[in-house]
Amino acid sequence: MDEEFDACIVGAGPVGGILACLLAEAGVRVAIIDRAALPPMEHPDFDGRAYAIAAGSKRVLEAAGVWDALPYPAGGIGDIRVSDGRVGRPASPLFLHFAAADVGEAAFGWMVEARSLRMALNARMHDLAALRVFAPAEAAVERHEAGATVRIAGGPVLACRLVVAAEGRGSPLREQAGIAVTRMGYDQTGIVCAIGHERPHGGTALEHFLPGGPFAQLPMAPTEGAANVSAIVWTERNATAARVLALDDRAFEAEIARRLGRHLGAIRLLGRRWSYPLGAMHAHRYFATRLALVGDAAHGIHPIAGQGLNLGIRDADALAGLVIGARARGDDPGSEALLRRYQLARRPDNLAMLAATDALDRLFSNDSRVLRLMRGLGIAAVHRVPALKRAFMRQAMGALTGVG
């Protein structure tokens, strides 16, 4: 073998990159491989994409040395307002208002530009002495009881104790291992963009439940050419989404305004529009011989709660803790016993979030009069029961997950 590592991560997206940084920060010898080039510094244009980073996930990014490397400021979410309604009509007078200050926190979470996280990860990965980056690169992986061999096309042959699949929902390593997946479709499209607006958002996020799916406005930090900026995460039935996405910018902005309301004043589109078919999936196992699945390779959920990346960050944090502990004790970081502990640590949380987001989407993404009444009564009940309201707020911050 040309080089030896404790772990080899295939896929340098946010979850794979964060895991690599966590391991390398602790002195674990780790290689990360990706088909795309990962230059240490980039200056891409603002493109409208952003991630909602929960308070618990922020602590993980800090431990990985990534948070302080973000080149653009994050926008704090200090308040969340949840309402139910219909397009073009006033929101229901029954609503939920969550304030992070009520549970002694500065924010529920932060909105981080996608380009900012990408730049911070790329730069951090190139700075860590215990981390080798192979990108762009293709790799062939062979796993066996004693270890794994990773052959870089046109490059070295790597020996490692553990291989991590972080390649996303279509993970070739998961398929190669014969791990079955359960999938659920929603007949919905996710539309993502950013808007500039006339009035400041005050750090308040809006989650507005509409018959076609949830519509969220999430507060972001200022960016080039816009002092007041919000991310829009908008779910629609496929047919409606196709019509909306075909509109020109002015008509598209008008459709956003119909759902958003007038509280932010005049709006304008910033950057690109993005769209994604929505569905959920869950791997039946999170591991095979010398292989662990993290992030979207293991699970995918509806974006209704904005928790997809946060679940992947929790995966990275849990697996990193187990591998770092094993290495410190001189144990095998790719043993079946360790991988079983990883699955036990993460599977219940991920399944619970999948079930919760699926139930929320099915409950709210319809126009049934009976369900509208039930939703209104439920929202009012949570708003009036302080203990229940605090429980919802702590869940929003990731405080119930043990992260960090």
Number of strands: 19
Average pLDDT confidence is 87
CATH fold naming of the domain at 3-42 and 114-183 and 281-366: FAD/NAD(P)-binding domain
Within CATH, the superfamily of the domain at 3-42 and 114-183 and 281-366 carries the name FAD/NAD(P)-binding domain
What shape does the CA trace take?
Answer: globular
Helix share bin: 25-40%
As a percent range, the share of strand residues is 25-35%
- SSE arrangement, N to C: EHEEHEEEEHEEEEHEEEEHHEEEEHHHH
What is the CATH class name of the domain at 3-42 and 114-183 and 281-366? Alpha Beta
Per CATH, which architecture of the domain at 3-42 and 114-183 and 281-366? 3-Layer(bba) Sandwich
Structural class: alpha+beta
- Give the biggest sheet: 8 strands, mixed
Quick summary of this structure?
With 404 residues, the chain is α+β, with helices and mostly antiparallel strands. Helix content is 34%, strand content 31%.
Keywords:
404 residues, alpha+beta, eight-stranded mixed sheet, 10 helices, 19 strands, disordered C terminus
